[in-house]
Amino acid sequence: MNETCASFDVLFDPDRNVYRAYQLERSLLRSWSPRTIWTVAKLLLAGRKWISKQDDSDTSQLGGDFIVDKNGILRLVHPSHDPADRPPVDDLLKVIEKL
After folding, report:
1. Are 70 and 54 in contact (CB under 8 A)?
2. Where are the domains of the chain?
């Protein structure tokens, strides 16, 4: 949790087991679309650092955001259409606050 500074549990899925279970997509075209490239460029111009990929990374992998309650019930499901497609943080926090 030192990496996220979160006061709640965050799942890291390096073996992509959850990725496969949630049937998230892969798309090289959507992973490197003009929208994604523009988002990355804005982040770099704002001073964010490029995080180097690990050797086993999959640049075609599309992510998602999920909130699971303590009973294992999905309270938010947002599979990403492209890497820039993320729910607003305020929306995520509202769901977490209701838990």
Report:
1. no
2. 17-47+56-98
3-state helix, strand, coil in the chain (%, to 5): 30, 15, 55
According to DSSP H, which parts of 1-99 are helical?
17-21, 28-31, 34-45, 89-98
Distance, in Å, from the CA atom of 19 to the CA atom of 80, rounded to the nearest integer, reads 12
Give me the phi and psi of 89, to 5 degrees please. -55, -40
Low-confidence residues of the chain, pLDDT below 50? 1
Residue whose structure tokens are 């279970």: 21
Q: What is the pLDDT of residues 11-35, one digit of tens each?
A: 778 888 988 999 999 998 898 888 8
For residues 64 and 79, the answer to whether their CB atoms sit within 8 Å is: yes
